[in-house]
Amino acid sequence: MDKQSKKVLIDNQQLSAEVITVSDRCSRGERVDMSGPALVRLLQKKGYAVTKTCLVPDERPMIEQELREAAQHDIALVLTTGGTGFSPRDVTPEATVAVCERMAPGIAEAMRAASLRITAHACLSREVAGIIGRTLIVNLPGSPKAAVENISAVLDALPHGLATLRGTVTDG
Description:
Blueprint: E1 9-10, E2 13-14, E3 16-22, H1 24-27, H2 35-45, E4 49-56, H3 60-72, E5 77-81, H4 92-99, E6 102-103, H5 105-116, E7 129-132, E8 135-140, H6 144-152, H7 158-165
Parallel strand pairs: 3-4, 3-5, 5-8
Antiparallel strand pairs: 1-2, 6-7, 7-8
């Protein structure tokens, strides 16, 4: 097994992940979700067990509900894609902030910094990252290319953070 396909393990258990696509059009079946599947492929390639994917409309209560359910099911990593722009219906960051107990601003800062090397539009992304219980939530842009580029900027650092969050590694 090559390094890229190794399972991400903590206490001999593969880390779980969930991908939530936030899109009115995808949730209504008017557009095919491309971002969610692209993120699933990347997570699986990096060794995560993707246990759930879902589509929700740009409705803050529904986004919050999905995020809370992921934490209740002890999902290690939740990636959202979509709803991070300037449109009045883009409320994914607000939903994320509402459910998180602690924020992880360095993750979003690192993603934006990496993305700025690709496009000046990166500064327009309102993505955030935060923690609820033992679950890390990371918001990503809605475009498949941008979502994969953004999470790729931080993905190698996340196993250490998740191990610390889950109490198997200490930072002291």
